[in-house]
Amino acid sequence: MSRYRNLVLFLTLAAVWGSAFMAIKAGLDYFPPVLFAAVRYDVAGVLMFGYAVWVVDDPIPRGRGEWALIAVGSTLLIAGYHVLLFLGESDPAVTSAAAAVIVSLSPVLTTGFARAFLPSERLTPVGIVGLCCGLLGVVVLARPEPGALLTGGVVAKLLVFGAAAAFALGSVLTRRIDASLPIETMEAWSMVGGALLMHAVSVALGESVADVTLTPRAILALAYLSLAASALGFLIYFDLLDRLGAIEINLVSYVAPVFAALAGWLFLDEGLSVATTLGFALIFLGFLLVKRRTIRGELPRLRAAIRGRGGD
């Protein structure tokens, strides 16, 4: 079963991060956007720092390479991504569907950055077709209005695109830097550093604690984003980044909308339409194309396992 560990973690990450969009939208009714993102990582950073001190023998980064990893994590994966995303989503013109489509460009952007920085992780032409197929599936699944991505909220949508680009570049650069750092240490220091950077941006934008309205719904949104989407989510993310590489792990942004659709069907009585089914099919086809070699190598093991069970 250890061979399927990565798959289970990948699907868990997709479920947690997919549902985070809803929590962000809910919390933005009660917090200024950048301050909301900063407080989210105040909580997550303190928790992860305590966890790192507990499980790691030496939780202090050493040397230029390890501090470079922290710098990339703080500026791009935490501060850059979340400042741009929260600012973009605070605009009513940026619907959940539009945000999902834009953020799902991250694997395509990762592929482009990997071509420049990680020659060993370049995709074949068939793999590139798979990425594009998955992106098309997300578009079909989200079903944005035809003109919604091109009219209204253009600046906000560019901010969300910038968030996807920051995350993609950060994923690639963490793989390029020649340094070994425990996942817990990297996550804790990146979150603390990112939170400090976001507080600085919040102050520069004139946001104030006086603009915060604490309600049970606001606290629930903050708790979910801090504990599940941030602490747990990034712990899984960095683990899979090391195992799968920058291109494959960022495919999570293709799967996250699938979990959003399923959650809407299960809890909000939103029907699964023909367009939703087609979106699932396209995303699945994209994964088959990108992961065709891994799947081909796994089939003999599956057949052997089935024959073994049949013999029992």
Automatic annotation (TrEMBL):
GO terms for cellular component: membrane. Keywords: Membrane, Transmembrane, Transmembrane helix. The chain crosses the membrane at residues 38-56, 68-87, 93-116, 123-142, 154-174, 186-206, 218-237, 249-268, 274-290. InterPro entries: AA-Vitamin_Transporters, EamA_dom, EmrE-like. The keyword Membrane applies. The keyword Membrane applies. Residues 8-141, 158-290 form the EamA domain. It is a multi-pass membrane protein. This is DMT family transporter.
